[in-house]
Amino acid sequence: MSPAERPAHVCVACLALGLALSPLAPLFALAAAAATAIALTVHGRRFTGLASIAAVLVLSGAAIGDARLRSLEAPAGRVRDGPVRELRLHLATPPRPSAFGFSAEAEVASATLRGARLLLRVPRWSRLPGGIEVGGELAVSGRLRELRDTPGAGFDFAGHLRRRGVAAELFVDRARPTGRRRGGVTGLLDSMRRRAERAVAAGLPAPEAALARGMVLGQDEEIDEAARQDWRDSGLAHLLAVSGQNVMLLVALALPVLALAGARPAARGAALLALVALYVPLAGAGPSLQRAGVMGAAGIAAMTLSRPASRSYALLLAVAATLALNPRVSSDPGWQLSFAAVAGILVLGRPLAVALADAGGELLRARSSGAARAVVRALADAIAITVAATLATAPLVSFHFGAVPLAGLIANLLALPAVAPAMWLGMVKVALGLVAAVVPAAGGLAELLGPLTRLPLAYLEQLAERCADLPGGRLALPLDSPASVGLAYVLLIAAIIAVRRVLRAPRKRRPLSPRLGAGFAERAAAWRRASRAFRVAVVVLVLAALALATATGLGSPSPPGDLTVRFLDIGQGDATLLQHPDGTAVLFDGGPPEGGVSRLLRRAGVRRLAIVVATHASRDHHGGLVDVLDRYPVGMLLDGGDGNPHPGLQAVRDEAKRDGVRIVPAVAPMTLRAGGLVIRILSPLPRPPGPPPDDPNPRAVVAIVSSGAFDLLLSADAESEALLPLDLPDVEAMKVPHHGSSDPGLPEVLGRLRPEIAAIEVGAHNTYGHPAPSTLTALDHAGVPTYRTDQDGTVSLTVKHGEMHVTTEH
Lower Cβ count inside 10 Å, N or C end of the chain? Predict the structure, then answer.
């Protein structure tokens, strides 16, 4: 197809190119304009006029993009570092928890920064006022800081914020609600969104409510980190995020209903566009969702329009529109994935859907009902969208996230039966929530749908867990540069072209033998002559065999057959799991909440925990235990809080009480038995009356865990000052105290313990300097082989026939 036959395509593409180049130096736009003109001119003189127009459009796009960037960056130019008092802000996003506290975006409603978008940083020891919702006004005091690039950092966080339109960061000291809300159209959308949020979560437990808000409204801030990581590793994370794939998923779910209703392609397209137009404002209408809506519209065109040229033109228009909104968006991974997904649907979706529908039609007789044919077409469309989007985004996923989840395609296909009812029930609940503003009884109906909505959500939750744990479920591809990603797409496109040529010209291929070809034809004819009951039975048996194979592959791992100690990689924190061959499992600490200890326990084959030990009051030790107590049967909680009223540790105690778990204070001397494990508590000794000490580390639980001749020292954050007064025996292994921090008395401790193996539980790139060089030197001088979770991942020590064997994750 020559450029002259598609001049509109060339013009829109050149405009989009100029917009994409606008964040770069003007020289790049000039070079691109010249290259475009030359490339078109060399095709012949008849392209000279088009070449001139294309070059002008590249330069015009660059100029438009530059003007748009100046407009977006104008608020940042008014920001000056320094303190602010009582700055009036409208909360723009729900607060999101992190390792350092909370963060949220807000728009300035007063002073010289009016209209600027700020990232609020709220430390752990503080928080935003309770009950504040998106759209509510706050009076905030704190410290304002301009966005700063960090050379050498692995992730350009400042660039990420600029792409979101954030002008500066505001470190919050105090915040109070004023009782006012933003008005106008934005305020109306706020109220609609609040009703939608309450309705979609009505009648659901907290975990499933968080998943429902993530799937239906793209609000994933309340999903715990362990579950979030499962959905990432299984390739289902796009279901919880606001992206072009999320919008296209909604489209995929609407297609079966429209097909069953007998709607023609044009009517389907109009209905889908109306659905997206309703969905975008309900889910927040933020910048990323606006882009998702535009990309979704392009995807609808890709599946609806019959002419490939029209579908590609719709995609080019979507690219130009999103770049005009924000020219920096082309460097955003979400935009890239949305574009790739829609492009994949454009190139692969339609042909694949037709092929699948034809294959499904072979299972039906010519006189099959129209409903059966519509079901086949609907399933073909849904599967085609999933497969096309997954293949098209694979190189980018590997580049941005380090690996491609091989389980993603399987997980997405297995998720189709549950995603449809979960999304549709969620949307029905949203609609009922909006109607409740006029008909209050509709809110009660939304709550009644809660138990029904929970069924597909629970299935998806289990599916994400199982697929995330599939052996070899993630494939690391060597795509570490834009050039390698480009090469991967060249190879992918070449493969697609080759396959499509083969499919389009099957008669040109000589069969392997006339007898073999005749055999295929005879079998196909015999299949078509067979009774419907026979064919249905065969299909059911095949599906049952696939389900059995899937269930076997997705089953929970078995516990180890030998004594195993796992120093779990949960980031900057402690979590140590001991598993005895008799099935007993004991957990010392659970790391921080974002460490995902529950999923690591599941991968280790843990089904029940005899004892959970909270060694002391410290977020990086007890933070993950609430989730552990919620997810696993636990026999006893050994509470090393030492009377400390820390809110996080109190949440652990409260969860234990709700679950009926026996709570025992950890006071030395004490000996506990759990199956074949013996736990001797050496410290802390009983504390005299009075408030607990300010520093809980020296009074952390110190224990010797034994099984036969094997002894392990676990001392949490208690260093030599607390250890040396104790009666320390020889041990085979030890966890180095306090993440390997500097400890002058460590050489003497090592001399008394004489361990054969040591492990340091520490997070990569932590800001504390752990492990300290002096600690590593002391271990080296003592001749103790030392393993580190920041470098080795989870470290597993297995004792078999009296011999210790160590394996590492990395």
Answer: N
- Per residue in 667-692, is it b (16+ CB within 10 Å) or e — as a string? bbeeebebbebebbbbbbeeeeeeeb
Q: Is the Cβ–Cβ distance between 666 and 690 less than 8 Å?
A: no
CA distance readout (Å), 247 to 118, 244, 298: 27, 5, 11
The domain over range 78-149+157-182 is classified in CATH as 3.90.190.20: no
Q: What does DSSP assign to residue 349?
A: I
Beta strands in 422-483 (DSSP E): 474-475
Say if residues 687 and 699 touch (Cβ distance below 8 Å). Answer: yes
Report the run of H or E that residue 73 belongs to, with start and end: helix 48-77
Give the mean pLDDT per block of 10 residues along the chain (810 residues): 65 83 71 64 60 80 85 80 89 76 85 84 74 84 84 66 84 88 80 85 87 82 77 80 60 69 75 76 59 68 60 76 82 79 77 70 53 67 77 84 74 80 83 83 87 90 80 69 85 79 53 46 57 60 55 61 93 94 94 87 90 93 91 93 87 92 93 94 88 88 94 94 92 95 94 94 87 94 94 93 89
- C-alpha to C-alpha distances, 81 to 123, 143, 144, 145, 172, nearest whole angstrom: 19, 7, 5, 5, 14
CATH of domain 563-808: 3.60.15.10
Rg (CA), the chain: 30
Q: Which of 215, 229, 242 is nearest to 458 (CA)?
A: 215
